[in-house]
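ok here's the first one, seq then struct tokens
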Amino acid sequence: MHLQKCVSDYKKAVSAIEMAYNDLNSETFFELADLAGDACHAAEDCQANMKGTHHSLLHFMNDALKVLCEICLVISKFFTGS
């Protein structure tokens, strides 16, 4: 059950990251920060759902996804001045 929830969360995260990439690629940057935040929240939801279980690889992947989201946020702030 925990892993099924993470699959759903990761589908949301991948979708948000793909849209963020498209936003970055189009040089509009309007939704980049929000989309990165959506992806980060999906990773956090997965992590919260796995609390108390021993899936260290999944924990590592959640952390890596959050770092990618933080990079997107920095890029967004750089280009938008926000």
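and now the second one, same deal
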Amino acid sequence: MPPEQVLLQMAVGKWVCQALKVAAELGVADLLAGGPRSVDEIAHGTGSNPDALYRLLRALAALGVFTERGDRSFENNALSTALRSDVPRSVRAMVRWLGEEAAWHAWADFAHSVRTGEPAFDHFHDEQLFDYFAKNPLSAEIFNAGMTSFSASTGPAVARAYDFSGIGKLVDVGGGHGGLMLAIAERFPAIDCVLFDRPEVIAGAGPVLSTSRHAERIETRGGDFLEGVPEGADAYIMKHIIHDWDDERCVRILGHCAAAAAKEGRVLVVDQVVTERPESAFSKIMDLEMLAMTPGGRERTELEFRELFEQAGLVLTRVVATDSLVSIVEGRKALH
């Protein structure tokens, strides 16, 4: 393919993102769970214009999402099934967040981030992301649902890759609605679990926790990890938290965990680790999301994690790969 066509295909990614977001928002894949349906039936079920919906689904089918039949009907395939809300590893909620209006507007202002190093989100909305969520609960709900759906795949991967068996009490710092904690509790039933996040987030965790037989083992605590974390645990784990913040606040968060941990306690950071390998391309693109959306957040290399840990009174002991996009960066309290 000529270089100009390759670049154009990259550039029209915005069209694909919004097409996927609308299909996810309308719940098309859920409507097709029982088998093929005509575009008129799908339009009726989603409250959509039949012609416009046909053009949307035709475009997605051309990309391999949904299968178009000869009679203007569509059915699910492997890719579109991942947009169903009722399947393991569903990405429906995450796709909705990636195309959500607040995030979309911020990316339209991405040049501001590149010119200044400041978050485009803050520049466009005149406030930081989590302050915006506090005033816009619908956006916060979409975001939290997206993070929970992402945990549906990364949580089990973390539980498979890391041996939690020597941990008596584990605190999930900024644990959202508990997807990661449930995955760990399922595989390691002897651990006492504490789910810790902002009170308004914890208030929404009930429906997720109630789906598991391990829910009664998970204590929920509300608070602000920038101010402190529950004390006395053997280990503190945080998934996609450190990448949200600048170095100063990362050191503060990690320092709170180190200070609160029991003797010889561990701190586990679950994030993407940037490497020079070609398969690390996704982490480098995700790093741009951090640049656009967060106050100083970034995806980091192992060396950058090591430096943060040292400033927080921790020693980086190893990086554990998982069979997902994330790795587990393990630190232990430094001996003095």
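notes on #2: The chain has a mean pLDDT of 94. The chain has two domains: 3-87, 143-333.
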